[in-house]
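Predict structure. Chain length: 221.
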Amino acid sequence: MRKSLTDEVTESMMEQIYSGQIGVGQKLPTGAQLASEYDVSLTVIREAISRLQSEGLVTSRQGAGVFVAESMVRRPFRINPNDGQISISRIFELRTGVEIEAAGLAASRATKKDLTAISRSLKAMEEAIETGTDAVAEDLEFHRAVAAATKNPLFNDFLGFLEGHIRGSIETSRRISDQQEVVLALAEHRRIYEAIEAGDVAKSQEAMKAHMYNCLVRCEE
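Prediction complete.
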């Protein structure tokens, strides 16, 4: 599987942090400097920094810049993208349990405001697909909205931690799927929403489990 520019930049910066080339508490170069160094756009750099933040490796200080986190050496859990044993399927196994439980809790706890947020993200995903874009951002927003509906902030935190890996898997799925497969993915999201809206815990979990399985199949085709 070919790595994206964001994957390559993120992994390079992680290696520098883990190896001590960029020390704990040290300020990172500016976005413009990093873009020039890696010969990529600022958007790629921002996405890479976002992934490093979700891994707890860097922290942003308003008006000062981005620094290697003082606490990163004490972080109890992390996923090293350079670990050859960390496959997409293993990330999905970890994510699936969390997403299924989130869907069930959302079905039992979602307020009208939550349902509106999930519905809005579903509509945005549909519109993005209709215009021919990959709808990755909208897809992620849908899952964030479901996590928020659990009323347990730890679900949002954990999905945020995994977001870089989740984004990569969705991007991979979109690249290798034809339009029909993308439409099927949209239908899977719609079934999840409809089950949550109906307050049906079991169906919400079943719909999310089916979606996670199909996502993995699409990534590995």
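Summary: The beta strands are 58-61, 65-68.
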